Amino acid sequence: MGFIKKIFHKKEIHELLDSAAELLVKEEYNLAAEKFNHILDYDTKNIKGIYGRGICEYYLGNYEEAKNDLLTVSKTEPNHSAHIYYYLCNISLIQRELDEADSFIDKFIELSKEKSEGYFLKSEVKFIQRKYQQALNFCEKSLEYVPGSYDSLILLARIQIALELYSEAEGTLINIIEKNPESAEAYNLLGYFNFKQNNYTDAESNFNKALEQYPDYTLALYNRAYLRYNQDKYESALVDLDKAYRLDESLIKVKLLEIEIFKSQRQYEKAVQSLNELIDNKPEYIDAYFMRASLNTSLGNIEDVQKDLSELTEKEIDNEKYLYILSLFEFENNNLAEAYNFIQKAIKLNDGNEKFYFLNGIINFKLENYDSAADQFTKVIELNKEEPRAYFLRGLIKERQKDIPAAIDDFSNAIVINNFYYALVHRSMLNFQLENYKLALGDINDAIEVKPKNGKLYYLRANIYRKLNDNREALLNLEKTIEIENDFTDALALHGYLDLEIQNYESALRDFNKIVELDKNYNKDINQLIEYASNKIGNEI
User: Fold this and answer.
1) What are the tens digits of pLDDT across the range 176-219?
2) ∠465-467-473 over CA atoms, to 5°?
3) How many Å is the maximal CA-CA distance in the chain?
4) Is 80:74 a contact under the CB 8 Å cutoff?
């Protein structure tokens, strides 16, 4: 009877395998997984059953279960190993276990005939690890096997942009678009490339083309929103972010940019609402609790702050991360000594986290420990040379310490990375001090392109034109300043002085009278200027 039962089970297992395989092809993974589990009820060591269940678990997003099954098969069935290591590498990439992914892909390359796919994955792993030169080498190797591979060319362009090989990146992207004129990915990358080059007009055009090809392309929506945010086009940026988030609620950076826009507009209640949505969808994102606590502190919602802090203490988080959050909270509440103590403890537990050193630098900066702050920002740069804020803040320290060449170098690095707005303004002011007026003008022009509605920028540009003896342009810029900020007394004063020089006494008188209305104590000489302009008008009459 045992022999007959074994034959019966073998036949049933065969039928179940056929049925499960058919469901797998149809992408009905839940039903297929049930079939494979049924097979394993009969035979716990059935390799095809374990393999099939592992593939189902992979596509169902149950990655640990998938990994266990696939590793089991790899140990007993070497013929399946190449394909299995491909899946294992993808699982490790999803889980951000990059060293593990690297190891799995080495085995895939060793066992597989699909060398192009193997080197492509190897390149992708190195790209995520920010080992861009290695990524470039493996990507080029992938293209040696399949020269026209679309995925490899897209990755190649991303790597070239990261390595600042801009002419090569542009050539790669144009080549992709010529062969694939409907490539939303290529247009999006070309837009990002334009953005890095400060070519905002072409950047927007290419993001638009990407979205024409694929209207639900969340990355292009985010990139266009970020571009518009940098141009102070907040409302249109929010429209893109809202659509991107409705398409994919897992996109944390979309919500973070939305929150940043609301904060820029001082719409703190809306920022809190956005954080509520983010926390509802991603309760494991610890930083959001701190951000909400910080905003509620500003709004005076103390009970809500206490709720967030209580929730943080209940969550299972790494000690150093919790210390970092506590330090941030104390810093936001201007308890600098407490903030400093917490961040020091966090760094002792984890000395490789750039965020810790950045916060430590900010705290030391606030405490006016400038040398220590500069050391912390230097540490950030050692860990991440692409962090423009660290260069800018270290430059700010050098500026305060009167080390102007070092300050200009740091501001320049911040500008090279992403046209960092504040670095443009400060480098312009330093060149103004050094009487390098044309260099100062170039930077302030770039800053105005980034933030065209900032009246103070036009005031700075007016002063530069004044030094270049171009009073006509100086007056035009002062008029723009006053149009944006009609209570800007220094701009009104300079406009009045220039009016006196060109004998436009009525305009000068209006400027000086406006100053007195705004600030009676502005300058004791203002009354004399009013009297002077009035006398000139009287004499003309």
Assistant:
1) 999 999 999 999 999 999 998 889 999 999 999 999 999 999 99
2) 20
3) 128
4) yes
